[in-house]
Write a structure and sequence with these properties.
Number of helices: 7
Radius of gyration: 24 Å
Distance between the termini: 58 Å
Length: 295
């Protein structure tokens, strides 16, 4: 009882949200540019307001899904999971450049890591492998976002993040378990077998997590994973560079990539106390830049 509650660093999380907002703005601009490219000017002028409304409406709908029930699920996890379990709410990560994942809840248990997608849809849900539909009262069935597909993407990218941040613990990727929790749904039926566990409410979620028996994550590793998540920074591109010496004994650094990448590497050498020359482009390879160093 009383699991340990962790949160991500607030300042780092602000950076994540800023980057997500920038990506949304860029996606919206690309959509508008595509309309200008593919439609006559008059049609483009008429189409843009509609497209903008649909874009913002879908965005608001996605943000609202699950928001009303996350606190209750969080409280259930905290109260009913044992002390040696740790969990986060609203985890934001960037495993690949401009590929963000926002996890409603993340539980680090002795048995494994549980990625929880929470939805607070009222009414009844009927699902097939490709399509989920919701009906509230006597209203018509409406198509809703498939949370299984959403959580499959989260799981794939989270495993990538684990591999990059805990490469020595490869086995962790084998014990990552995605699950969808429906907080307010009256009943759920599926035409075919759904390729991810679906549970109804917080207590059923706790029972699902506890049903796994194998202890594979000790307390020290659990804490390490949480610390990695707590201070996880946005994606940083790995820059490839090599050191060498000319036949005249002059030390140099060659950087593969862009001029800006080379400037970043050059700055790291300056921070270490080295004197450097300016960055120059390689005459034989346009994707390589270099600079000379001396102590």
């Amino acid at each position: 009882m009383f699991a340990k509650y962790w949160t991500q660093d607030k300042e780092i999380k602000k950076i994540f949200y800023q980057k997500i907002e920038e990506k949304i703005k860029n996606d919206k601009k690309k959509m508008m540019d595509k309309i200008d490219e593919n439609l006559p000017r008059i049609l483009a002028v008429l189409t843009k307001p509609v497209a903008n409304f649909q874009f913002e409406n879908q965005r608001m709908h996605r943000e609202m899904q699950g928001s009303n029930g996350e606190n209750t699920i969080s409280n259930t996890l905290w109260f009913w999971l044992p002390r040696n379990y740790r969990f986060f709410d609203d985890v934001v990560l960037e495993p690949e450049k401009d590929e963000f994942i926002q996890l409603d809840h993340l539980v680090i248990a002795p048995q494994g890591i549980f990625i929880i997608e929470a939805k607070t849809w009222n009414g009844v849900i009927f699902a097939t492998e490709k399509t989920w539909r919701l009906k509230v009262g006597n209203k018509k069935w409406v198509k809703i976002e498939n949370p299984v597909k959403q959580n499959e993407r989260h799981t794939k990218l989270f495993k990538k993040w684990l591999n990059d941040n805990l490469p020595e613990k490869k086995f962790l990727q084998e014990i990552v378990y995605p699950v969808v929790v429906l907080k307010k749904t009256a009943w759920f039926k599926a035409k075919e077998t759904v390729e991810m566990p679906i549970v109804m409410g917080g207590l059923e979620l706790v029972s699902f997590i506890k049903s796994f028996k194998a202890n594979k994550i000790d307390d020290m590793l659990s804490k390490t994973i949480c610390e990695k998540i707590q201070f996880a920074k946005p994606y940083e591109e790995k820059i490839k560079f090599t050191e060498g010496t000319t036949r005249y004994g002059k030390k140099y650094v060659r950087v593969n990539g862009t001029f800006n990448n080379a400037l970043k590497v050059c700055e790291t050498y300056k921070e270490k106390g080295y004197k450097t020359t300016g960055v120059k482009k390689d005459k034989k390879d346009e994707n390589v830049f270099y600079f000379y160093i001396e102590k």
